Structures are given as structure tokens and as C-alpha cells.
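FW: tagging you since you asked about this chain on Friday. Here's the raw sequence from the shared folder, copied in full. Didn't touch anything.
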Amino acid sequence: MRTRPARPCEAGALTELALRSKAYWGYDEAFIAACRAELTMTPDDIGPRRTVVAEEDGRILGFTTLEGEPPAGVLGMMFAEPEVVGRGVGRLLFGHVVTEARRLGFARFTIDADPNAEPFYRAMGAVRIGATPSGSIPGRELPLLEFTLASRRTLAGGSNSRS
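HL: got it, structure written out here
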């Protein structure tokens, strides 16, 4: 499994992957339909949102985006195919975001997390700093997390210890 920059021609496939990934948590069709606009990637989004995919044997298993400008960014999207959840795709993508954010000079990034994904992000070292309104579901709030790059040394070897 490796990461690589996403291609503009993959925007539609990434949108469908995001919707499948969101549905993994048991949301009904109406909920997923309400999220479609927010989870849609266009060819013009790929570069500016710093979109990266995780792939294996030419198959895209997940993707992520790192948005904004230093010193503060946003992990805008991170999704994995439902059948590979638990195989390290999220850890690989998160590690890429951390490495890229450091390289670009970010000090921190925030994450508007699905409530079901909050434990994963917390295990990666993010901390909850509040809540933020859902961009798709009126009245729904999402956990707002922050990852501070200065507090982390590495994600290699599965270590999540704080420095």
C-alpha cells in the first residue's frame, strides 16, 4: 500500500468512495443523500485541496485532503473503502497528512470529525477542542478536533505516545 497524489480524473470515484465510507457507519440513504454535496469532489478540487490517495495494486483504498495555508490547516476529508477499515489505510493517510503539513510549515490542523471517527483521530493524537455544525445536516454537531504538529514526533511503528 502506498500514497500518491490524486488525479483530477479520479474526482468522481473519490466522491463515490466518500459516500460508501460514510455509509459504513450505518447512516440511512436519506442521510447519505443529504451529505452528497459536501462530500463531492470535482476535478478542480484535487490540486488545491492537496488530495492524496492510498492505493494497492492500482486500486484506490482511501483518500485524504489537507486544506488551508500555514500555520493552521484543515484535514478536510479522509475516507477509506468500507472493506479495508482496520487494515491501516487511515493510519497511512493520516501519517501522510502529518508529514505533508510539517513540510509545508503548518503548526496545527483541525478536523471536523464524524462522531464515529473521533476515536480514530484521538488515537492518532488529535484532541477535542469543541464542536462544529454539520455542513450537511441542520441541527447536527460534529466533534471539532485539533492536531498540533509540535507535540508529535512520529507515527511510525504504531507509536502514538506524546512527546
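FW: The domain at 2-158 is CATH 3.40.630.30 (Aminopeptidase).
HL: agreed, and The beta strands are 2-5, 52-56, 59-69, 72-80, 108-112, 127-133, 141-148.
FW: great, closing this out.
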